[in-house]
Structure formats: C-alpha cells, structure tokens
Amino acid sequence: MTTRIAFLDIDGTIIDHAGEIPESTVDAVQRARANGHLVYLASGRTPSEVEGRLVDIGFDGAILGAGAYAWIGTLWQAGGWRVERLMDPARVAEMITALRAVGADYVLQGRDEVWATRRAVDRVTAVLDAEGRLSDATREALLDHVTITDDPPHTGIAKSAFSSDDLGCYGAVRGRLGDEFSVITGTMPGLGTAGGEISPAGVTKGSTMQMVLRELALPAAAALAIGDNNNDLDMLRLAGTGIAMGNATEEAREAADEATTAVDADGIWNAFARHGLV
C-alpha cells in the first residue's frame, strides 16, 4: 500500500458553517489513519485556536497560522514544532501603521496568544452570530483567549486578520503593503472585501506543506490537499491532488484539480473514498 498524506483545512472543510463537525468526517480521518495514511490539519488558525474536539479526532500533525507553524507528530503529544515562520517586528509595525491609516481593525495572531482591537472582536462575534456559528466551542477557540488592546506587541506575530465596514478595505490594505506581504481576502464569510488576512511574503500553507513533505520524505504526488477558501489556493495547486469542497470559493475551485461535496454533505469522506484512503 502506498502511503498518502492528506492536508485538511478546518473552517468550511472539517467544521461546517453551523460550527459542527460531521460524523462522517471524524470517521474518514480515523479510518484513513488506521489504514496507514497520514492526516494533517492545514489551517489559518494558530495553535491556541485549535479546539480540543479537533485534537480528540486524532491527527498526525498540523500546519497552522496559514503556514507560519508546523507540528510533526501526533498533535500535542508525540513530535513537536518543526517550523516557525514569524513576521519581522519591523514588518509588524509597518502593517499596523497601514491598517490604522485605512481605518481597519485587526487581530494579531501568535503561537499561543492573540491580540485584537475591540471593534475587530465585536465584528467577528457579529459575523459568527449572524451565521449561527457562535457555539460554545467556537467562542472558546476563537474569542475567549483574545487580549483586547490598542498597543499590541510587535514580536511573536505570525499573521493578522483585518476587518472594516468598508468594502474598499482590502484594496486599500493591499495597495499600502504591496509585495512585502501576502494579502488575501474572502477568508471571513460575510465580510467580502471589507476584510482579509496578512502574512509574510512567501509564508503560505502550500510552502510549509512542501517543507513537511520533505521532512517526511514523501513526494508531492502522495499529498491530497482539501480546502474551501482563498488561503488554500497554493496548497491546492502544489499538492499532488488538490480538492475543493463543494462549498468552496470560485478561486479555490479553479485552483483545485477536482471537487468533492460540501462540508455538511460528507465532503471529506467522499474525497477520501475516491482516493482509496477509506
């Protein structure tokens, strides 16, 4: 049997838009691992935002912070951190200045801590609530540990999520930060071009996936990447097989080699079954 490795996004891929994890997804992950394959998380979430219910499913590792971190080995047990690709403090200062200049609020994400403006937290809370996703598990993972501050640290920052009430916010941020950063939009449902994410240039899920594959001595052809959003694009392109969820953005569909069904329609199970992991 040829060992395959699957990299799974979390929000919109493992967790559905009601904040639930389909039983078929849990079954798919656990059966694939029992069959000798590897299954990794690959998320924009940072380590402190990974819920206990995800860890309890059982994963062989994780790419987190949209490529800023990689843990190789059973999550929070065997193994450890092998990758940490942080933003230079001077770049953090430049980023905060740009966000303030265009009136954007921000969430700065580190490995174990998160710092945010009050309006950013209120806006995320409102979006989650409007979509019916403000469950206790989601609140604990994404909101309860955030430090509200207008004077955040400039060290230990992996990435930033930004938001505004202005649909021109993404364009304004992208125009100010240029090629020194990776700036994407469309990652927070309901915000559209009023928000986005910022990472150091070149730090992506896909580039860190390549690092993980090299360390595990696995070829790209062995990798399945499954995602639904715009921070999944290069991961979908660089894996041997990129699979877009049925609920994916148009950009993710175009980047992928194929599509599966939606997150709440057994999307992970169907993708794993098609490729012989279960």
> What is the CA-atom radius of gyration, in angstroms?
18 Å
Order of helices and strands: EHEHEEEHEEHHEEHEEHEHEHEH
Q: What is the mean predicted local confidence, pLDDT?
A: 92
Q: Biggest sheet: strands side by side, in what order?
A: 5-4-3-2-1-12-13-14
Task: Tell me the major beta sheet.
Answer: 8 strands, mixed
Within the CATH hierarchy, at the fold level, what is the topology of the largest domain?
Rossmann fold
Q: Beta-strand level of the residues, as a percent range?
A: 15-25%
User: Which architecture name of the largest domain does CATH use?
Assistant: 3-Layer(aba) Sandwich
Domain count: 2
Tally of individual helices? 10
In percent, how helical is the residue content? 25-40%
Taken from the alpha-carbon principal axes, the silhouette is globular
Compute the number of strand runs: 14
Structural class: alpha/beta
CATH class of the largest domain: Alpha Beta
Query: Which oligomeric state applies?
Result: single chain
- Per CATH, the superfamily of the largest domain is HAD superfamily/HAD-like
Low-pLDDT parts are none
Measured between the Cα atoms of the first and last residue, the distance is: 12 Å
